[in-house]
Specification:
A hairpin with a 3-residue loop joins β22 and β23. This protein has 1269 residues and is α+β, with helices and mostly antiparallel strands. Among the domains are: 309 residues, no CATH class; 158 residues, YVTN repeat-like/Quinoprotein amine dehydrogenase (Methylamine Dehydrogenase, Chain H, 7 Propeller), CATH 2.130.10.
Length: 1269
């Protein structure tokens, strides 16, 4: 409990004494016989005891009520956006096709049926018992003439196969010769082409196969058995092919195929093995069963009529003891699931699929059960054949070989379903009109089992056995909704669950359900498709091809839909149109742009109304991302968006409190800018572009500049990418703007003026973008930025003719003609007139604003944003290596990676002015820019190094001459080429270009070494456009669990927080009860190893850690229990050094280290105590702008955990309040003081008070709740 709370408790205790009465006020007064002095003494003692007791009670109550209320339970800068890793985002990109999608789906187009029965003649190696099995294709061959019986059997076999593949072509060969088989096989392969051929061989009337892999056929007269090698058979049929051998010792054929050293003729053995499938009725040493309960071709019956043979085999084993002949009378059709026969077939399919799914490897299951419909049916039925024939001591063989499945527990579920159906059969047959079939509870019970697994299952446990059954249940309207809900819960468990579901074959089912009109299925279907597209982007093609996209468009525009569900629909549509032109066209025609913009507009309008709930940020984020993907690269979509006033609507989203929403809106605005296929636009394209389109893109650029000062690096990165698109689309204008931005006025002396508009490299943000001729504080700068007013650099002009321009302090206005960026001297060549007119135009000011913004981004404190900014500079023709990096250590300006190039020789000094070093020739005429040098520094106090101090304090003058004639002369190819802004420019033969005197820096923030830092020639060889990853990163939200509100480590986080709260309370109590010690008593001393002195120190409240920052901004984390430094890292690599403050964020959780530099930049580090694992979570320019006359800044900041506010100020006229939850400037508090703030403290218990100490000795208290401070 805080000291203030203790005082309040004791004050309440004193008030509760009620004027000193020890008892109730209305109690009668009792006269005592004790002496009066004793009575008074006792009264005083009782008063003291009561006061102490009441104080203890109130302290306990206050402690219980408030606990650690001054310690916030909210964590800041710990969202997923602060863990963005560009490499991991690229690795987890959506669109990677998982293994579920079969790349080589096949179809069995031709079926060859070869029957060698020779009815009436038994083969010599077969001894038949009497009675024995006779039925062939459920026909008794001895019931009629042998020829007719053979024909009927062949026809019946074809009918049984057509049940599974009706579209295949069939050819039947009865008792064939070798030539007949050869002709049959060659004909089937010729007609099938690349499709699979099925060869069915029934050898019940010939001897068993030989050990060499030979089957038997007949001669023409049926007097001899002729062997036929399966190798010849394979050469005729080719691949792919499936063989079915129904004969005794059929395993010998399988062995012969597998033992052949060279599989196939002319093909690779591996491919032949993969494309060949064999099914054999029994093993190599086994004979077919002759039980009269089974047909003679029991293997063929299992493969082609599974329900009939399964029930006939089950009847003798059931307690019902039904007549097997009743099985043929089961009512219904196999393709009607509402009938008894159809339900049995449905259950059988689900059970056999489930057995295969749980037994086979995933790849083998895909190949055998999902690649070919006929092959899948045959293998389902093969599982039944194994169960039935193993009961008759036969073991069917296959290639690929399958593990045993005849004892799988799911067969008991089949027996149960069959018995339930058969038990109703007598009633249904006796009274077909009144009897009603009762469906089986099989699917209901299996869904319940699946639901139980969902309660306790995970990726570390065995997958659910019922997953294939859930797929089958989707076919039933009565169970569909429950199955979809359970399926959605399963998919939400992670990518592994989604891969399992897709591998089992869920995709075509949920794709077909998009054609359904049931409204109760819409929400769960949208959720399932969200999960699918979060893993596999390639499904966008299937959705557009099958017309599934209107389903999501209609859902997005439906009333009474929750915002999060709309966000899922927007995500699905965003994936559909992502880099897919057909998807974009289809969604544009469906009116998706208008729908998304209307929802954004509605959300903003509702938010603007009083007491209205804030819009769902996830919905706004994905509406913006969907729009960005929808019109990216689509001219039709961009034109429609401009007609719908999309830039204005999206511009209002840029002020939303969520950084992800602002980043998404920035991305959407950026994709409205048209770029060429190669990322560049030629000059002809720029000149021929539609005027309205150019105006709209310039307006979009003005809107985008609103987020230049955003506190989130995620938003600033998207701004940089949008600027890159603008720079590539308007490349010529950008290059001219870069040249104009760097060019000083003609025939004038320029002295830098420290003011709001001076391009002080220390301030990469709005301080550079101020109005010319006026001093702006940060509030005015931000307001100007939002209003889109052009920003000008402020310089003091001293004309060479003797007339002087007014100083910024006295200038009340500054028209564009007086602006040094846009002003042109009368002495400039006439060829500059077009460029001069362009620079005066409003469009030119927009491009200059963009260039200035890009310069600020290139100097951003967040590495990725700075890298993107430098790429945009290269697109603009500026050498990014020559960006000025500020340094206040030596009072000058430093440069990074700035290689020296030729400069002009010095000239006699002229004090106090800046002279033109070369002739500035306009960009439009293709000449180079002039170079300016500062010859006289401004006044500075003795304690500060001279401005741009060099090795010599003497004044210097640079040459003033026109080199146009030299540049227009012949080029000397012998001179080396000089790299300028990424392009190669040859030196001229002029001797003035051959010197090596180093030049100085201009006030624009670019070095002026050599010829120029701007290349006016654009080319397709420049750098590619940087890629945004806000969309890819945002897709990760839907890859994570959405239905579970808490993470697995939530309980651990809460337990750790409670423990630290307890430690905090105990520590406060110990401090309150501790005895006083002398300040001179030294507790400990450690040597940090710093050579420049310690500038800031911070102790961790719960760990034995001390954070130390020295003058070089080297951060050291010291463990004072161990007495050693656990981690050391550099806060930044820029030459400008100086730490202002260290703060800890989220003390009760995994704390973050906030380091505020003297230049106003704040950096927040994660994992700062782990050696080599520290990461920059966020950084931004917290202090933006300074008051007139300031020579530099020393930022003053303080952190308030209760509110999440960071207060920052310096030599500016206001206190900036940054909301770290929003990563946004919350407010600006005017200081109303003529002196700057030198110290500041934010109250940690009263979250509304801020105290500041000013340089004039005053102390001010601000209440941020007050509208008028």
């Amino acid at each position: 409990m805080a000291l203030r709370d203790t005082v309040l408790c004791r004050e309440r205790c004193m008030d509760s004494m009620g004027g000193g009465h020890l008892g109730p006020l209305d109690a009668p007064h009792v006269v005592s016989t004790l002496p009066q002095n004793m009575i008074e003494d006792l009264s005083r003692r009782n008063q003291i005891e009561d006061v102490l007791q009441l104080a203890e009670e109130d302290e306990g109550r206050c402690a219980n009520e408030r606990g650690v209320s001054f310690l916030s339970n909210t964590s800041y800068l710990c969202d997923l956006r602060h863990d963005i890793d560009e490499a991991s985002v690229a690795a987890s990109e959506t669109g990677v096709v998982s293994r579920w999608r079969m790349k080589d789906r096949m179809k069995t187009g031709w079926v060859a049926l070869c029957l060698c029965l020779n009815i009436g003649v038994d083969p010599p190696d077969v001894i038949k018992i009497s009675p024995c099995a006779r039925l062939e294709c459920w026909i008794d061959p001895f019931s009629t003439a042998s020829v007719k019986a053979l024909e009927a059997i062949g026809k019946n076999l074809q009918t049984q196969y057509e049940r599974w593949q009706p579209r295949a072509r069939y050819k039947v060969s009865l008792d064939p010769t070798v030539e007949d088989v050869k002709k049959l096989c060659l004909s089937c392969r010729k007609n099938a082409k690349g499709e699979r051929v099925l060869f069915h061989y029934n050898g019940h009337g010939v001897p068993r196969p030989t050990t060499n892999g030979e089957i038997w056929v007949f001669n023409k007269n049926f007097t001899q058995y002729i062997p036929l090698s399966v190798y010849e058979l394979e050469s005729w049929l080719g691949n792919p092919c499936i063989y079915v051998f129904d004969c005794s010792a059929a395993g010998m054929i399988v062995n012969a195929f597998c033992e052949r050293p060279e599989w196939g003729l002319g093909g690779a053995s591996s491919n032949s093995l993969k494309d060949c499938i064999l099914l054999a009725a029994c093993g190599a040493n086994e004979t077919l069963p002759q039980d009269t309960e089974l047909p003679a071709d029991v293997f063929t019956s299992c493969l082609t009529t599974p329900i009939k043979i399964a029930l006939r085999w089950f009847c003798p084993r059931s307690l019902l003891r039904l007549d097997p002949e009743l099985i043929d009378q089961i009512p219904g059709r196999q393709n009607d699931r509402k009938t008894p026969l159809g339900e049995l077939n449905w259950i059988f399919t689900a059970i056999t699929d489930t057995i295969a799914w749980n037994v086979l490897p995933r790849e083998l299951f895909q190949r055998l059960f999902r690649q070919d419909l006929l092959v899948a049916s045959l293998f389902r039925n093969f599982l039944l054949a194994e169960r039935i024939m193993r009961s008759a001591n036969c073991c069917p063989q296959s290639y690929p070989r399958l593990p045993p499945t005849h004892q799988h527990p799911m067969w008991h579920a089949w027996d149960m379903a069959a018995e339930v159906c058969l038990s109703q059969l007598p009633t249904l047959l006796n009274d077909p009109e009144n009897a009603e079939f009762q469906p089986s509870l099989f699917f209901t019970e299996q869904l319940t089992a699946f639901e139980v697994w969902l309660e306790h299952g995970s990726d570390r446990k065995k997958p659910p056995e019922q997953l294939p059954i859930v797929l089958q249940v989707l076919l039933s309207q009565s169970h569909r909704f429950r199955a979809l809900v359970l399926l959605g819960r399963f998919l939400d468990m992670g990518a592994w669950a989604l891969d399992l579901a897709l591998s089992v074959g869920i995709f075509p089912y949920v794709l077909k359900l998009l054609q359904a009109t049931a409204t109760d299925l819409r929400q769960i279907l949208v959720f399932i498709w969200t999960k699918i597209l979060a893993l596999d982007k390639s499904c966008q093609v299937d959705l557009v091809r099958d017309g599934g996209h209107p389903y999501f468009v209609q859902f997005l525009d439906s009333p009474d839909i929750h915002a999060e569900q709309r966000a899922m629909a927007a995500f699905v549509l965003a994936v559909i149109v992502d880099d897919y032109q057909h998807g974009q066209q289809a969604c544009i025609e469906a009116g998706l742009i208008t729908i998304c913009l209307s929802h954004i507009q509605a959300a903003i309008n509702i938010q603007a109304s009083p007491n209205a709930p804030s819009p769902e940020p996830l919905l706004l984020q994905w509406l913006c991302l969907c729009l960005g993907k929808l019109w990216d690269g689509s001219a039709e979509g961009i034109d429609l968006a401009l007609r719908e006033h999309a830039p204005t609507i999206l511009g209002r989203v840029l002020s939303e409190p969520q950084p992800e929403v602002r980043a998404a809106a920035t991305y959407a605005l950026g994709t409205l800018i048209k770029v060429g296929a190669d990322g560049f636009s030629s000059e002809e394209t720029e000149s021929d572009a539609d005027g309205d389109s150019l105006t709209a893109e310039q307006q979009m650029a003005t809107i985008l500049l609103k987020v230049l000062c955003d506190g989130s690096p995620l938003v600033r990165a998207e701004l940089a990418i949008a600027m890159a698109r603008l720079a590539s689309s308007h490349n010529k204008m950008f290059r001219q703007s870069a040249a104009a931005y760097l060019k000083p006025p003609s025939h004038a002396a320029v002295l830098p003026t420290y003011g709001a508009g001076y391009r002080n490299p220390v301030y990469p943000y709005p301080a550079q973008l101020g109005h010319s001729g006026s001093y702006l504080d940060i509030d005015q700068g931000l307001q100007s930025l939002e209003e889109g007013i052009p920003y000008r650099p402020v310089v003091r002009i001293v004309r060479t003719s003797g007339s002087s321009a007014g100083s910024p302090a006295s200038a009340g206005h500054s028209p564009s003609s007086d602006d040094p960026v846009f002003r042109e001297s009368s002495g400039t060549a006439a060829s500059n007139e077009g460029s001069r007119l362009w620079r005066r135009s409003e469009a030119g000011s927009v491009y200059v604003q963009c260039i200035m913004a890009v310069y600020a981004l290139a100097r951003d404190s967040f590495p990725r944003v700075a890298s993107l900014g430098r790429k945009v500079l290269r697109l603009s023709g500026v050498d990014a290596a020559q960006v000025v990096v500020p340094s206040r250590a030596n009072g000058g300006v430093s440069y990074l990676r700035n290689t020296p190039v030729a400069a002009l020789p010095p000239t006699p000094p002229v004090a106090g002015i800046l002279h033109r070093s070369t002739s500035w020739v306009a960009s439009a005429s293709g000449n180079l820019a002039s170079t300016w040098r500062i010859s006289t520094p401004p006044p500075s106090p003795p304690t500060r190094p001279p401005f741009l101090a060099g090795p010599s304090s003497s004044l210097r003058r640079v040459a003033s001459m026109d080199i146009s004639s030299a540049l227009s002369g012949t080029w000397d190819s012998s001179r080396p080429a000089v790299r300028i802004a990424g392009d190669i420019a040859a030196h001229t033969s002029s001797p003035i270009l051959n010197t090596s005197t180093p030049g100085l820096a201009d006030a624009a923030g670019m070095s002026t070494f050599g010829l120029s830092a701007v290349s006016l020639e654009a080319g397709p060889s420049g750098p590619l456009l940087p890629e945004s990853f806000i969309y890819k990163w945002s897709c990760g939200h839907f890859s994570r669990p959405l239905l579970e509100p808490y993470h697995d480590d939530e309980e651990e986080i809460l337990a750790r927080r409670e423990m630290r709260e307890k430690e905090a309370i105990e520590g406060i109590e110990r401090c309150q009860q501790s005895c006083a010690s002398k300040v001179t008593d030294e507790i400990g001393s450690w040597d940090t190893g710093s050579e420049v002195g310690t500038k800031a120190v911070l102790m961790h409240p719960f760990k034995p850690l001390v954070c130390i920052a020295d003058g070089n901004e080297t951060i050291r984390i010291l463990d004072y229990d161990l007495g050693e430094v656990v981690n050391t890292f550099e806060n930044h690599n820029a030459p400008d050094k100086g730490v202002s403050r260290l703060c800890l964020l989220n003390e009760l959780d995994d704390s973050l280290l906030l380091v505020a530099s003297s230049d106003g930049i704040v950096r927040v580090w994660k994992d700062y105590t782990q050696k080599g694992k520290h990461r920059l979570a966020s950084s931004w320019q917290a202090v933006q702008g300074h008051r007139p006359g300031a020579r530099g800044i020393s930022a003053v900041v303080d952190w308030q955990q209760m509110t999440g506010f960071l207060y920052a100020t310096s030599q500016i006229s206001s206190i900036l309040v940054w909301d770290l939850d929003r990563e946004q400037l919350a407010s600006s508090i005017p200081t109303h003081s003529d002196s700057y703030v030198s110290a500041m403290a934010a109250c940690q218990t009263h979250n509304s008070h801020v105290l500041t100490g000013c340089a004039d000795g005053s102390v001010r208290v601000y209440d941020i709740r007050s509208t008028e401070i």
